[in-house]
Amino acid sequence: MTFIEFKKLLLDAEITLPKFSKLIKVSEKNLQSYKKKGEVPNTIAVVATCFATLHRQGIDYRTLVDALELTPKTKKGAGFSKTKRTKTIESESV
Question: 48: which DSSP letter?
């Protein structure tokens, strides 16, 4: 699915990109990166399609998703580790 098709589905679901990102606990920056790529991943496309379909049928998808109590994923391994830095400093002083 192209990013443009994705944005049209969000309009159909009457949700903005920032609100969509908060609802599914994915960073807005991550979703915006798909604009440059031109396509969204299949999972994001499926979610947007389901939201638009549920909205058309008068089903409040927001409460359904909120009930899942999703938690945002945190980056692992990003940045510098304090333990590695401490070991490097200790090695240099020996």
Answer: H
pTM of the complete model beyond 0.85: no
Classify the phi-psi angles of 29: left when phi > 0, otherwise alpha if psi is within -120 to 50, otherwise beta.
Answer: alpha
Domain hosting 37: range is 3-93
Q: How many residues does the chain have?
A: 94
Q: Give the count of domains, the chain.
A: 1
List, run by run, the mean pLDDT of 10-residue segments along the chain (94 residues).
Answer: 97 97 95 95 97 97 95 74 55 56
